[in-house]
Design a protein that fits this description.
five-stranded antiparallel β-sheet; 8 helices; disordered C terminus; 573 residues; mainly beta; 38% strand
């Protein structure tokens, strides 16, 4: 019980709510103290013990903290049965992770909670590696690359380049919407003849930027029975016909015709040059990085969606960017905001890269400029870039130290910069065994997709850098390996693009014309433990069935029906 309580008190739960965790002990402490007094107090005159109904016991446990519920295991057999009930721990999972809880992946909600939503399994007091079910889907006809990727709890959004071979029947760049549960294609719609370079998601919308110097917004619309589309997110445009999404050339897609919604274009914004990167801010604004045709950075645009006519443009190398040229940007884990946006900037004279922090509410938006790849830090004068750049929990930002030579050689290095310190002398570096293609920050850890070229076939390995269990340093572990289903030697290393994204449900990697999806699953030792507790009832378990239809785990010790437990109530008059 003490070990379990220590795990519950860990503040690093993936996707946990800090505000909710802070507010819960206040309420739980009051309820638990009063109930404890009622359960342990001596019955006075005119009072008797009444049986505590099971449903009331569940409600009482929901008012407590997980640590207090764990302490009930040592109280009695009935309290033990109540403390390990699925209903109680399913509530705690929903409270901590909301809709992101991976309840469908686990037999036991209690095991899922102690495994921190499946990402940090614990077995016999030791941390184990998480388990994933990996599926693959072909998105494009070759040659066509996925340029950017986002995975959420509801869907996967992948945007592509314009196909180079026009004989395939499709000559436009497209957006693919994939179901993360079934790995089936929900929707595909074509955008333009220009390559889509980037995408981002907001509440009910997808924002994309492309080489035709346009930023487009697509809003989610609910489907109705007659095949039309009803707009639920604002904007106006013609509906996307269901037949157009099946005109895909020679690729045979398995569409999900039961998709509850579709996307329709809401608006377009024309920029001065090509859009290479963008982020959707919570203030209903889009921050776009513009480039020239040769991919040289051109500037930044801040576009308020309600008033696009009052957009603000920052030319590259201007005083607003401290003379730097912006290559990439990202928002922090708690959400992208105009008040804090991380960027990577290049000095025009020395080609040294810096990690920069911007507050676009100010007339001078750059509030921090920390050089990372300077000669003083041992880097060559040219050839070392910060790509990709990812913002973690504020105010920390991470960047891969990409060398122009040897992209597929040596090891990967990710540098971490903390904007609270005025110097990069305290910069932390994470060493990975293979070169980094892409990485993301999630739940206080770094998840990176790395290319392994030491075998007969090129493979993608997903590595995680997370704080060590003892609190000293960081641990690096390989979580999963995906064998690439195409010949990467047919492409130049600069064109062999791989994009990685991660969320509570799992991860997604694009390579070539394929998409690999890894969803969190229950580790083997958890299934074995559940089989012992449930007496072999696991064989009828459906991991994707409704929680109410699952096999419930039997209590470790059956409750004794003769014992009387309950609340002290007034004697009826």
């Amino acid at each position: 019980s003490a070990a379990a309580a220590a795990v519950v008190s860990d503040g690093g739960l993936v996707g946990g709510s800090g505000a909710a965790a802070a507010a819960r002990p206040v309420v739980a402490g009051t309820v638990s103290s009063s109930l404890f007094a009622a359960w342990t107090g001596s019955p006075g005159a005119g009072r008797r013990w009444a049986e505590l109904p099971p449903d009331l016991g569940v409600l009482v446990c929901q008012c407590l903290t997980p640590g207090e519920v764990v302490l009930l295991l040592a109280a009695s057999r009935k309290m033990q049965a109540l403390a390990i009930s699925e209903e109680v721990w399913r509530f705690f999972c929903h409270w901590t992770w909301g809709r992101s809880a991976n309840l469908r992946a686990y037999h036991s909600a209690k095991d899922l909670f102690f495994d921190r939503n499946g990402w940090f399994p614990q077995h016999a007091g030791r941390r184990e590696q998480p388990a994933f079910d990996v599926q693959q889907l072909r998105l494009h006809d070759l040659p066509c690359l996925t340029m950017d990727l986002r995975i959420t709890d509801d869907e996967i959004i992948a945007v592509s380049e314009a196909p180079r071979d026009r004989s395939t029947g499709s000559c436009q760049a497209s957006v693919h919407i994939v179901d993360p549960g079934s790995c089936r294609l929900r929707e595909r719609f074509e955008v333009s003849n220009a390559t889509i370079n980037c995408c981002d998601v907001g509440p009910g919308l997808v924002c994309i930027g492309s080489d035709d110097s346009k930023v487009r917004l697509y809003r989610r619309s609910a489907s109705v029975d007659n095949g039309d589309i009803v707009n639920v997110g604002g904007g106006s445009s013609s509906a996307i016909s269901s037949g157009s999404r099946h005109s895909l050339g020679s690729t045979d897609f398995d569409f999900d015709d039961d998709a509850p919604y579709h996307y329709r274009v809401a608006c377009e914004y024309i920029c001065a040059s090509e859009v290479n990167d963008l982020r959707f801010a919570r203030e209903d604004a889009v921050i776009a990085v513009r480039t020239h045709q040769n991919r040289a950075p051109a500037g930044l645009d801040v576009i308020p969606l309600a008033r696009p006519d009052v957009r603000i443009s920052f030319p590259g190398g201007s005083w607003a960017t401290r003379g730097k040229f912006i290559h990439a940007l990202d928002g922090f884990e708690d959400g992208c905001s105009l008040s804090k946006v991380a960027c990577s900037g290049e000095h025009p004279m020395t080609s040294a890269f810096s990690a920069m922090l911007f507050d676009f509410r100010r007339s001078a938006p750059c509030v921090a400029d920390l050089p990372v790849t300077s000669q003083r830090r041992g880097h060559p004068p040219v050839g070392t870039m910060l790509w990709p750049l990812r913002a973690g929990s504020s105010p920390k930002v991470y960047a891969n130290l990409l060398h122009d030579e040897g992209r597929r050689q040596g090891r990967g290095t990710i540098a971490m910069v903390d904007f609270r310190y005025p110097s990069t002398d305290v910069c932390v570096r994470f060493q990975l065994p293979d070169p980094v293609d892409d990485f993301r920050c999630f739940g206080g850890s770094i998840y990176a997709a790395c290319t392994q070229t030491n075998g007969p076939q090129q493979r993608l390995a997903v590595h995680r850098c997370s704080p060590a269990a003892g609190g000293d340093g960081f641990d690096t572990e390989c979580l999963s390996t995906v064998v690439e289903a195409y010949n990467a030697e047919l492409r130049h290393p600069r064109e062999d693009l791989k994009v990685f994204s991660v969320c509570s449900r799992g991860f997604a990697i694009s390579y070539g014309d394929h998409l690999a999806l890894g969803t969190v699953s229950q580790p083997g030792f958890r299934a074995a433990d559940f089989g012992v507790r449930a007496g072999g009832a696991v064989r009828g378990f459906d991991g994707f069935a409704h929680p109410a239809s699952r096999v419930e785990a039997a209590p470790l010790t059956p409750p004794a029906p003769s014992r009387k437990m309950g609340l002290l109530v007034e004697e009826p008059s």
